[in-house]
Amino acid sequence: MNAGTHGTPSTPPARPYAPSPHGMYLRHFGLRTAPFGITPDPAFFYTGNTRGELLDALRYAVTQGEGIIKLTGEVGSGKTMLCRMLADCLPPRVDVLYLLNPRLEPDEVLHAIAAELGLALDGCRADAVLRALHGELIARHAAGRQVVLLAEEAQAMPGATLEALRLLTNLETASHKLLQIVLFGQPELQHTLDLPQFRQLKERITHSFAVPRLPQALLNDYLACRLAAAGRMAPLVFTRAALRALARASQGIVRRINILADKALLAAYADDAQQVNARHVRLAIADSPFYRAPWHAGKLLAGALSALMLVLAAALLWQWRASSPDRAAAMATTTAAATATAAATAAGTAPPSSPLSQLSQASQAAGHAGQPGRTSGTDDAAPAHAAAAAPEAAAPRASTVASAPSTLLDSKLAESRDWLAQQGPRQLVLHIASLPASDTAAAETFLQQAQQAIGLHDIHVFRLPGAAPATAAPTTLAGTPPGLRQTTPAQAPASVGARLAIVYGSYVDQASADTVRARLSPASPQKILLSNIESIRTEMKTVAAAKTGRGAP
Q1: pLDDT tens digits for 110-155?
Q2: pLDDT value, residue 458
Q3: Angle ∠(459,535,409) on CA atoms, nearest 5
Q4: Are 387 and 365 in contact (CB under 8 A)?
Q5: Which of 104, 245, 265, 499 lies at a CB distance of 3.0 to 4.6 Å from 108, suitable for a disulfide?
Q6: How far apart are the first and last CA of the chain?
Q7: Residues 486-493: what's their mean pLDDT?
Q8: Banded pLDDT at 534 (limits 50, 70, 90)
Q9: What is the pTM of this model?
């Protein structure tokens, strides 16, 4: 099969309308069958984005009959489709065997290959199976046949099984390998092969290929290819905004593209529309579990998390250490600077200086002031001078901030309640900070700085009842999944009473939450705890019940 310059396939044979759950929109868009199914159908093979070239290269490597061939790609990138296409386009003299279960033990692999060759060897020892395989492969080679084994999900194979496959390549004549092996796997397969114990297997790999992600520039061509293969005669328009949203959400993974495009067509059908716009794609994205990229991916977001933890450190240091006049002055100065920065940002002008650098300086000043025995002399002459100069000018600003309505905090509290109602009870969150409910100024400033650093989309604030007194025994965070229950040290008297709990993110499993916590913990001045949505709801109900009880006659 020759690769073309674009992905338009030859017209497939006519098909009747296929019964499928997508049938409701097939006639609406003039389709014979669902164009974006996720089952690898060779009729929908897209030759663009080097896939046609990859198929030609695989076919060439197999027909050469030398060594082991490896093809890797992300989950849903199209590896299975290439595997099916390879099996279909090989010459008639090639016998194709499939190894569909990657978790077989070495002896089980030998029996599975024997079964694919039609040998009845149940109950035979491994050495007897190997001799029978050798004899069968020699007989087929003598008859002019070539045997190729296609092994999918190779990244999940036990190490001993991979070694057994390598040993099978030792079955050869004086000039030809009797068994050709093609490994299809995720990128983890390459990580496995890089281990020292697999260096012999790695040396046997003569051809390595990788399936690329689909770039946005080829997305419209890919969609047109699938639609034409499904029977669409005229182009179906995906607007530019729709293509951008689809590319951003799918990240170039063709399986995701198929899922989202299918749902977008359904949304367009519901609107009785003949083109797919951004709204239809957004509806599809909202209905898909992968609608957002992993929050922790990329250097930019990692930097944003560091910025968030600087903000958090400053807010907590203000709360814990602002007791002396010098510390209060430092707190007021930084609060005023944050307010000025927020106002400058809203007005579209450049802030007077970096808010993160101001926070860092404030944190250092507060940290020095909180250390026993530190004075305003010698090494700290400059910070002490700044603190001494600030009280008269900064105190009125601090008073203004403290008495101003907490509009951002109030808005976030209301928004967080709505968000909480939409979450599943087992969704996990990270408690990154806890402030007294009475200290609305510190909470307001924290939210302002977090808004500028990374935005407030993943930050939520809840008003919760007070913690145990200082004399109480350590408490366990309610709702923490088994195996991760953590105890918090007894709270200081200043923490007794209602508090504002600040949580970050929403995670479907413990592994995802632990990954985030590991990134945040080194920069956090407070221990980050793991909890679930149900525990927050329970505490919120406690607050509501307490308020109702106080108001009752």
Answers
A1: 999 999 999 888 888 888 999 999 999 999 999 999 999 999 999 9
A2: 81
A3: 30
A4: yes
A5: 104
A6: 84
A7: 38
A8: confident
A9: 0.53
HSE on the CB side for 374, CA within 13 Å?
17
Rounded Cα gap, residues 30 and 41, in angstroms: 20
How far apart CA 383 and CA 369 sit, in angstroms, is 10
Residue type at 171 in one-letter notation: L
Which residue is listed with tokens 């609406």? 28
Which of 400, 398, 493, 415 is closest to 451 using CA atoms?
Answer: 415
Could you give the CA distance from residue 190 to residue 202 in angstroms, rounded to a whole number? 9
Which residues are CB-neighbours of 423 under 8 A, at least 6 positions away? Answer: 506, 533
The region, left, alpha or beta by phi > 0 then psi within -120 to 50, assigned to residue 378 is: left
**Per-residue pLDDT at 120:** 85
Dihedral of CA atoms 186, 192, 198, 201 in degrees, nearest 10, equals 10
Helix (H, G, I), strand (E, B) or coil at 187: coil
SS3 content of the chain, % helix, strand, coil (to 5): 55, 10, 35
DSSP 8-state class, residue 443:
H
Cα dihedral 449, 450, 453, 454 in deg (nearest 10): -160
Q: How confident is the model at residue 314 (pLDDT cuts 50, 70, 90)?
A: low
Q: What is the DSSP letter of 63?
A: H
For residue 544, what are its two tokens? 């509501």
User: In 10 A of CB 173, how many CB atoms?
Assistant: 11
Residues 6+ apart with CB under 8 A from 407: none
Query: DSSP string spanning 377-440?
Result: SGGGHHHHHHHHHSHHHHHHHHHHHHHS--HHHHHHHHHHHHHHHHS-TT-EEEEEEEEETT-H
Amino acid letter, residue 189: L
From CA 283, how far away is CA 279, in angstroms rounded? Answer: 6
Evaluate whether 449 touches 553 at the Cβ level (below 8 Å): no
pLDDT greater than 70 at residue 279: yes
Residue 516 contacts residue 295 (beta carbons within 8 Å): yes
Bridge partners of 500? 435, 463
Supply the DSSP string of 287-330, one letter for each residue.
TSTTSS--TT-SHHHHHHHHHHHHHHHHHHHHHHHTTSHHHHHH
To 10 degrees, what angle do helices 278-286 and 240-250 make?
20
Which whole number is the average pLDDT over 493-501? 64
pLDDT tens-digit map of 185-211 = 999 999 889 888 999 999 999 999 999
Alpha helices in 185-324 (DSSP H): 188-193, 199-204, 219-229, 240-250, 254-270, 278-286, 299-321
Q: Report which residue type is found at 290.
A: F
Cα 35 from Cα 228, distance rounded (Å): 8
* Alpha-carbon distance values, 216 to 220, 259, 456, 477 (Å): 8, 16, 29, 45
Residue corresponding to tokens 């408490």: 475
For residue range 19-65, what is the model confidence (pLDDT) as tens digits? 445 567 888 898 999 999 999 999 999 999 999 999 999 999 998 87
